[in-house]
Amino acid sequence: QVQLVQSGAEVKKPGASVKVSCQASGYTFSNYYVHWVRQAPGQGLEYMGVMYPSAGTTFCAQKFQGRVTITWDTSTSTVYMELSSLRSDDTAVYFCAREEPRTCNFDYWGQGTLLTVS
Amino acid sequence: QSALTQPASVSGSPGQSITISCTGTSSDVGFYNYVSWYQQHPGKAPKLMIYDVTDRPSGVSSRFSGSKSGNTASLTISGLQPEDEADYYCSSYATNNDYVFGTGTKVTVL
After folding, report:
1. Helix (H, G, I), strand (E, B) or coil at A4
2. Which of A43, A94, B22, B95 has the most CB within a 10 Å radius?
3. Which residues of chain B approach chain A closer than 8 Å at the C-beta?
4. How far is CA B33 from CA A108, B93, B109, in A?
5. Is B36's CB within 8 Å of A112's CB?
């Protein structure tokens, strides 16, 4: 079965960086996109960006450009999202989510990773 | 991208039908038929309930249905059940690889 398993909770200081991982299983990793979405405490979902493994490219939403780096390791079917220059308002749960190419929806989600910036 | 507008809360009694609206612009909801809906229970990851405006993934109850008119999409839950109590978010593709989510709606089953 398809699974996206994320790394554990993190606590970081303002100005630091964090790297969250999302390990995929149950499907051919290179055939699907993986997106990143975050949710601040008590708030809604916010789109961050995506990786396109077959094209070898990524996209980041304008708000996160320059601070978010998305990478991946095909050998371990793992996607990474690094967020730099952390601020207190980056405190949120970060989710990875899979997309079947060009369907524009997120059919499987990771369990979420809580990042606390304090 | 500005968030899509949803009502903060909607409630209904068991067995009733409720509808959640999701208002965007002619650059997202109004332009693309890539509107999806997600259900999120507290402390859990979102779950895909509707995609491509009207389609249901395998395993999602037929009590959930979607529609769209102009810049506004809607999710209807018929025969409301206690387990439907959750937060619901709409999402739309919004050009140049970007996506936008709705503000979220808390559904309460009275």
Report:
1. strand
2. B22
3. 1, 3, 32, 34, 36, 38, 45-48, 51-52, 57, 89, 91, 93, 96-104
4. 20, 8, 29
5. no
Residue B96 confidence class, pLDDT cut points 50, 70, 90: confident
**Considering only CB atoms, which chain B residues are within 8 Å of A44?**
3, 89, 101-104
Q: Which residues contact A77 (CB under 8 A, 6 or more apart)?
A: A23, A24, A25, A29
Distance from CA of A15 to the nearest CA of B (A): 26
Which residues is A78 bridged to in the sheet?
A23, A73
Profile chain A (118 residues) by mean pLDDT over runs of 10 residues: 98 98 97 97 97 93 95 97 98 97 94 98
Note the pLDDT tens digit of each residue in B41-67. 999 999 999 999 999 999 999 999 999
